[in-house]
Every structure is written in structure tokens, then in C-alpha cells.
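Hello,

I think I submitted the magnesium ion job twice by accident. Can you confirm which output corresponds to this input? Input:
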Amino acid sequence: MSTSKYCRLMHEGKPVWGQISDETIQILEGDLFGQFSIADHKVALIGTKLLPPVTPSKIVCVGLNYADHVRESQSSNVVPQEPVLFMKPLTSLIGPEETIVAPPQSQRVDYEGEIGVVIGARCKDLSPEEVAKNIFGVTCVNDVTARDLQKKDLQWTRGKGFDTFCPVGPYLVTGLDCKNLNVISRLNGETRQTSNSRYMIFSIAELISFINHIMTLLPGDLIATGTPEGVGPMKNGDIIEVEVEGVGVLRNRVQRNG
Ligand code: MG
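Support: Only one job matched these inputs. Its output is below.
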């Protein structure tokens, strides 16, 4: 299957979609999830500041979806019988090369490298087989987590919801095989997480079908599909990278004030 690579950027004062070919961004006109055309504008990829390549109505996240991460997270070794869901606010979204700001309320802010999946069309109650056809594309997500606050709380809105806690990008890529995708995280250039979607407890299609039997999903909605083993803390000045095979490298710097 052929792949296409999309990004978002500011162009003539407006956020727009672009399609990447080689080192060039072709500006698109219209709705990426509906009708669009290639406009008569190009910009160089190098030197262009990219926005998060998603326009979701909601960000739905899955916790504890790799057995090795379940083991490192809990004293018990109980694998969830159903997907564990939570949400991140849209105000947590940042793009590639933007700064993750560690808040003063937390002493431990962790990276979580994840495969992000973007929905193609409005849907409800789809089976896993139907959902697989309704995936528009894949991106990289860092589910940044205030681990100390997450552990204090029964639900995770606080620990997962700070501004800048959802870096996404650099691209949204269509035509990848969600059943077999590598995901890697590097902290200051050193590999910390390395896994593949085939090691998920619930497959991407099963996860989205489960979510879709709860809530209507809209075109552009973002699903963060869980992190593998190897999560860890970030300190001021650290560079965290999340790479999903076929997508590219999402790179962000960490800032802690005080
Ligand atoms: Mg996560």
C-alpha cells in the first residue's frame, strides 16, 4: 500500500494542511478528511515550523496496553480485562520542536512514547474489522505524565492533563500497517523504549472499536494507544524523541522552572 505524509503549518496567517514530498511541503486546500486539492503553493520543509498534525475533537488515551509496561507500573501483574481509558484536554497539544513545560506541582514528569491513530470519518459502534477501514493515519504521541500526581489520584486527569503534555507529530501518515509498527523513545539520544504494536494486549482495531461503542468518533479524533516498558522521568533541558516506524521522529525539549 502506498503511503502519504501530511503536516500542518501556518501559511499566509492561517493553519493549513500540507503534503510532504521530498523536502517540499505542498499546501492543501479543503478538508483533509473530505474533499481537498493541492494548491499552487509550496514551501521548503527545512526551516518551517510545524504544528501538531491533528485537528481532533477529543484525545482518547489507553493505559496499560503492553504487558511489559503493566509489570513495571504495578506491584501486581494483573493484565486489564478491558482497555483502560482516559482523555487528555486539547490544550495539552503541542507540535514537534515545541517545549514540554514541567509544572511546579509535580516532582516527576515522565515521557511515554506511543503510536497515535487518527480517525477518518464520523462513526459509532463499529466492529474491529470496520474500524480498521476507518483509520485515516498514524502519528507519534508522547503521553507526558506527572507520575507522582497520577499515583495520588484515582483517575488521571490531573497527571495527564497539563498544558504541553501531549506532543504530537511530526507527520500524519496514511497507508501504514497498524498491526506491525515499531515504536521507539530516546532520551538525550539514548534508547529507552522499543516495542511494536504486535505486542499490544488489545490491538489497535480492538481498542478503537471498544472506544467507539462508548463514544461517537469524529474525523480527526486522536487515539493514543498506550506505551511499552521503559517509561522514565525527564529533567530540565532534556531532549525526548518518539519515533514511530514510517512516520518520523517527534522531538521536544523539556523545561522546568524552579
Ligand atoms: Mg500512556
